[in-house]
Amino acid sequence: MLYGKNFAKALEVVDSGGITCFVGERTGRTLYKVPGRRPADQYLVFPAHFCSCQSFQFDVVGRSEAVCCKHQLAARLATVLKRVAIVTTCDIELARMLLEQCDG
After folding, report:
1. Where is the SWIM-type domain (predicted)?
2. Residue 42 CB contacts under 8 Å (≥ 6 apart), including other chains
3. Which of 32, 47, 48, 92: CA 20 to 30 A from 2?
């Protein structure tokens, strides 16, 4: 199966809710926040390219064992299933969210 164990896990993430898509008002760029297992865990996701979780770094980038992590897949599924909150924000706020991730 293309997504393996990540498909079922991504569906669980979608079912639990809390996925937010931030859309830059000027550029239309999108950045997702996807919840992790613990309430304090929130991952920044570009569904086709990046997730800030450890699984993305180890399984997708490092070992090439997966096409994407469960958070990337959950962001895609939530969008298609219309189970995502969409928030329009200024592009500077998107940049701030990314910078916070770098500092964290």
Report:
1. 43-80
2. 33, 34, 35, 36
3. 32
